[in-house]
Structures are given as structure tokens and as C-alpha cells.
Amino acid sequence: MTTLYNSGLREECGVFGIYDLDGNDVSTTIYYGLEALQHRGQESCGIAVSDTQGPKGRVHSCKGLGLVNEVFKESKLQELKGNIGIGHVRYSTSGSTSIDNAQPLVLNYIKGSLALAHNGNLINAMELREQMEYGGAIFHTSIDSEIIAYCIARERVRSKTVEEAVLEASKKIKGAYGLVVMSPRKLVGVRDPYGLKPLCIGRRGNSFIITSESCAISSIGAQFIRDVEPGEIVTITKDGEIHSQFLPEKPQHAHCIFEYIYFARLDSCLDKVSVYESRIRAGAALAETYPVEADLVVGVPDSGLTAAKGYSEASGIPFGLAFHKNSYIGRTFIKPSQKERESSVKIKLSVLDSVVRGKRIVLVDDSIVRGTTIANIIKMMKNAGATEVHVRISSPPFLYPCYFGTDVPSNKQLIASSHSPQEICQLIGADSLGYMPIGELQKMVGNLPVCKACFNNQYPMDVPDHEIRNLLEI
């Protein structure tokens, strides 16, 4: 499965923050950092910058719907003058797709200005929003990121420093989050106590970076320093030091397993685990659990390719490329009809007939959500002459929704919640189907504690009943 075909699962968001202590403009660097995080969100993006030596509280920002290179032209970047800034790429897991919901959010209040970019989802957003509205707050967006920004701004009024305000606000919010916050003179990063969302720190000369993935650090020629620890608040100030403090809550860590299965970029390393190596191990585990006699192992571009290579190496079956992906087609949003969804797959992806003709194929992908996409791909492969198509999926079946910012649909839309693997195999037209056994999933990440709730219904925190009802009724 891949987002190109709109089969249900989507990216999360990506955040990027930088503070150049030498006073150089950072907007172009943020642009390239966001391009490296484009895989995490393709609906909207934005940049907010400030000059730490200029008028306190003056923030220049720009955001829009579309890809980074569509929203930001060189002339626009030249207008964004400042040596401290944050950026965001978004896929909506809460709130609609609109320019109002694009980030970063910029607040002007009694203490000056505050800009925030957020990856994740709060489970107590409704409760906090109602409290603020009854207190007179007026919201301009439908995203929970604005709730976080208001929490910080309110705490800042009675706090000595912005990091103290962030600490107090973080005690009130519950859920998954990776945040970058820009005040007039400081850059702050915050990671939720469970470690559900990734966040890391880098450095290039006298510039410090806080971002979602290490690939964004390496893409701008910076050096990776370390991951932000779960529950940690890091602050970059003009002294060039990384100041650290921790939230008092210290729950069992539960890193999102789907960062390693699908979301994160292949060249990233999250919490000391290589994304590439984790997917190689996933493919190997599939080969050991579901061996089959076949002539060729192929992966669905791009997310299934690495696991397919791991399957090939472990099984001894040759690895091949069976698809051409058209990289020049624009973004494809949800198609309203089954016929249009099928045609979008054919436009984006074509089968190399000479590769699959007359062969028994092992087709590896990262997940099956609704089943529409994989069924279309299998049909295309058999029309191209494949004699057998054996599907191997590098995640267990999706059975439960996610409440923490990963857009796993409601139970009614998950094919595995109402069909057995045998029934799914028949529905998608495969000759056999093997999902990653949940007991084998840990092999991907070694000893790293992970959240597997969308597979086993064991959530790392209590989810309010109204949230569950709302999602199950979608």
C-alpha cells in the first residue's frame, strides 16, 4: 500500500525548526528541510521566521495548500527574513483540508509572539477546547495544534520563560505529539512522554535544528546529534547550548511501529533504529513465516520495496522491479468512485510485462487497509501474464483505529475487521496471503518498546469513550 493510490492509510505531519546563532537567514534551509520531510504530508505546508536581533515579536510567515515546491518560490523565500524559524508539512488527521488549518500557527499575544508546528494528535482536545471556549477563547482553526498553542500562550502569561510555559502546558495535553515552538529569542522542541512521535536534534556550524526525522538533518548538510527523549523539552538559546528538562509523567514508552513499517523515510534513523534495516528485517521475518515456491520477489513502490529485498535475501528467491511509477503525475486525492480509484492506480503505476510474464510472483507491501489498491495491482499483474501472485504484508492486519495521529480508518472501513485472511486473499485475487505475525513484529526494532494498538487493541493510554464512539461511527 502506498499513499499514491489513496487506499486509506496516510502520512503523518513533519516539523522542522532551526536557530542560526550567526544571524543568517534560515528560510531557504527550512525549505530544504521540509522537502526532505515531504513524504510525511502533502496537503499543505508553511514557514514562519523571526529575527532575534530585530523588533521583538515580529514574525514573517507564509503557508499554503500543496507541496513545498508549489507553495514556496524563490521570491517568497527572500521575503522571509530571519535567523530563527520553524516549518511544517501537513496531512490532516484532525481538522479539514483548508488554508486555515495549515501550519505553523502564529499567535500574537500580551507577551509578544509564538509560533508552533505540531505532529500528532491529542485525545483530550475536545475537553480542552470546550474549557477554553467557555473561557472566551475564539478558535480560527479546527485542529488541536491551536489548542496546544493557546495552552502555551496562557501559561506564558504567568511564567518566567517560554520553556516553563511549554512545560506547564504539556502537563495538560494528552496524546501523541512532536512539537517545535518558536519564541522571539528561543527554539523549543517537545516530545510526548510515550515517544509515540519522533523528534531529533542536529547541528550545522552555529545552527541548531529540531525536526521529525534525521533525513531532514542530513539533507541540509548538518550533523545528527541525538533523538529528543520521550517526555523531554529541549530549548536552544543564544548561548549555543541545548537546555533540557523533562515532564514529570514517565509512562512506559510506546514508539509508533508504523514509523518503521511505512511512515519514516528510508534513510532516517529513529531512536537508534535504522528504518532501512528494520524493513529488511521485516521482509526476512515474512520469508521465514510464509515461505512459498516462486520465481521472483517484487515490492509495491515505494514502501514495499525494502521489505521485498529482505524477503528475497532470506528466501533466496531473486528480487526484481516489476513496476514503473509515474513520478510526474500530480498528487491524487480521494476518488469518489470505485472506477476512478482503479484508474488512478493505472495512471500512477504500470506493470513491466516482460518481468512478470510466466512467473510466480511474491508481491510484498506494507499493509492492506480497504483492499482496493492491492486487488487492482494483482489484477494488473495477472493481466500482464503473472501465473501466480503470492501477497506478503510486512504488518499485521489492521483491526483497530489509531487515536494518535496516524490516519488508520474506523473499524467499518478496515477490511481485516470483518474478513479473515483467507477471505481477504480470495477478495483481492491473490494465490496466497501472509501477514506479519504480531509476535514477529518486535524483530523489526529489537528492544525498542512500540505501540501496536492498531493491531492488538492495547493502547498505551486510556482513550476517552467519546473519541472511540466518534471514530467507530465514521
From TrEMBL:
Cofactor: how and how many bound:
Binds 1 [4Fe-4S] cluster per subunit. Binds 1 Mg(2+) ion per subunit.
Q: Where is the Glutamine amidotransferase type-2 domain?
A: 13-239
The catalytic activity, as recorded, is:
5-phospho-beta-D-ribosylamine + L-glutamate + diphosphate = 5-phospho-alpha-D-ribose 1-diphosphate + L-glutamine + H2O
Q: Give the binding site residues for Mg(2+).
A: 303, 365-366
Where is [4Fe-4S] cluster annotated to bind? 256, 402, 451, 454
- Enzyme Commission code(s) on record: 2.4.2.14
* Family statement drawn from the similarity comment of this UniProt entry: In the C-terminal section; belongs to the purine/pyrimidine phosphoribosyltransferase family.
PANTHER family with a match to the protein in the record: AMIDOPHOSPHORIBOSYLTRANSFERASE
Q: What is this protein called?
A: Amidophosphoribosyltransferase
Q: What is the scientific name of the source organism?
A: Wansuia hejianensis
User: Gene for this protein?
Assistant: purF
